[in-house]
Amino acid sequence: MYEYSHMGGFGFGMILFWLLIVVAIVWIVSSLLNKKQSGTSDLGEETPLEVLKRRYARGEIDDDEYQRRKVRLEEN
Hints:
This protein has 76 residues and is mainly α. The chain has three helices and no strands.
């Protein structure tokens, strides 16, 4: 009887251990995929050109404004 209760506790600990490992792996992969899909730079901040492209895509600025600002950004 002693061995059974001892093994039961050990089994639960191992299940908990592997569950934590799986959760950590899923979290890491999910974080990496979200970072890659967000289109941000390595520092987590958008570049000025990315902001400009996003504003143009949303229709916040027109073609002429987009081209003018893009040329100015490329000069710097």
